[in-house]
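Each record in this resource describes a single protein on a pair of labelled lines. An example record follows, reproduced without changes.
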Amino acid sequence: MTADPKSVPHTPHPGERLAKRVAEMLPCSRREAEQYIEGGWVRVEGQVVEEPQFKVVNQKVELDKNASLMAVTQVTLLLHKPPGYDAGDDAGVDLHAAPHARPRAPQPPPRSARQLLTPATRAAGDSSGINILKRHFTGLTAPVPLEVGAGGLLVFTQDWRVARKLLEDAGVIEHEVIVEIEGEATPDTLQRLNQGLSSDGHPLPRVKVSINSANESKSKLRFAVKGTHPGLIAYLLERVGLKILSMKRIRIGRVLLTTLPIGQWRYLLPFERF
């Protein structure tokens, strides 16, 4: 007796592509199946799989009940960069490599801050509610430089709108930086910094400087400067005879570093704007 073909359950061929299985399971087009998978909506034996070419045999395949075919959202990651790392875009500048500074001996290349962008280093306090996907760590650019020797807020983005904002409006977006120096800054020194200095007859970008905290051994100065000027703060402090101990960027525009732990990252929240 021959079995009715309609009553025989589907048996996938060994090594069947996940996209094919999902397309047959829903049903939907192969491209739609790939979009579901790339969006992190498909689980194989309870684990999210993001690769349409992933091979399945008899594993259990499930589609999230909230699955959507809306365009995949591009993300922006905020990292608390430790000193000693660059952005991986040749944007990192040595903390003391200020304009017109004396040449220094070649140094070994710094580590890339990109290696800190992993699921394991996501901050526990991230309130975005975004599920981590592998694709969130690809196609990232770092449009706002931060010196290798400095720490603090570093932006990585896939979103062309965020990148364009940071680049095209660079001249009006204010950066706030806390700089720890050796000793104290006198009122005259602060006045010189706030009045503006020049180099070779050309005025340097203006900064606003105030004392954050101070004692006899070391002090913290708060710098506010519009635009990205790697090496500028180091150069200005060298000109007035102050030695830098550390530097941390705590704000870019309206986005704050706040309590983000060093070496960890979070997603930019939907309501946050630079």
The helical segments are 18-25, 30-38, 160-168, 187-195, 232-239. The two ends are 72 Å apart (CA to CA).
